[in-house]
Structures are given as C-alpha cells and as structure tokens.
Design brief:
Layout (H helix, E strand, L loop, with lengths): L1 E6 L2 E3 L5 E9 L1 E12 L6 E7 L4 E2 L7 E6 L4 E6 L8 E11 L2 E7 L3 E5 L2
Parallel strand pairs: 2-11
Antiparallel strand pairs: 1-3, 3-8, 4-5, 4-9, 5-6, 7-8, 9-10, 9-11
Length: 119
C-alpha cells in the first residue's frame, strides 16, 4: 500500500502565499504521477495541478499563480500557491497514481488539508 501525508494548509490573507507538501510512503514500486485536487463546500472535487513523466497540467484558474514540483528521491510533491484568492478556499487533497509491491496500479488519496483565504 501507499500512504500520502499532506502538510502546509492554513489561513492566509488574500494575495498571500502557502506551500503544500505531500509525502508518499509505504511499499512503493513506482509512482506514475502525483497531483493536487481541491474541493470547496458544495462543489465537486477538481484538479488543481498534476505532474508526471509527461507535461505538467494546471487548472486554468491557478495558472500563473500555483507551481507544482516533485522530488522523486523523496517521493514528495509540493504545491506553491501565490497570489491566493478567496475562491482558492477549499480542502486540498494529494493524489498519487502509483503501484505498490502488494497492489495493482491505482489512485491513492491523502486525508486533505484545509486552505482558507480570508481577510
């Protein structure tokens, strides 16, 4: 199995910055992609950013403000969020498309971390 642990959420004023970290651990055979999703109250979960061996993809709403990066040696993905807006308020979830030594390739999810942008 693969476990994902997120950190870095919190309360920030509009225009501020936060960085989210997500570390994967467990019996990891290979991680194909890692990314971040978010879910605001009353809305569906949406993709924020994802990185793999291919191109990095961002939601249109965060392009130019958020940057995703990955440290393969540490099995960790980061989301640097700048110029935050109140509409970025949501629970942010880490996702990994991964294969473990004990399971087939599938999606794994973190527990979620709250990001609140408010003055």
């Amino acid at each position: 199995q693969v476990q994902l642990v997120e950190s870095g959420g919190g309360l920030v004023q509009p225009g501020g910055s936060l960085r989210l970290d997500c570390a994967a651990s467990g019996s990891i055979f290979r991680i194909y992609a890692m990314g971040w999703y978010r879910q605001a109250p009353g809305k569906q979960r949406e993709l924020v950013a994802i990185t793999s061996d291919g191109p990095t993809n961002y939601a249109d709403s965060v392009k130019g403000r958020f940057t995703i990066s990955r440290d393969n040696a540490k099995n960790t993905v980061y989301l640097q969020m700048n110029s935050l807006k109140p509409e970025d308020t949501a629970v942010y979830y880490c996702n990994a498309d991964a294969e473990s030594y004990s399971d087939y390739r599938r999606d794994y999810w973190g527990q979620g971390t709250q990001v609140t942008v408010s003055s």
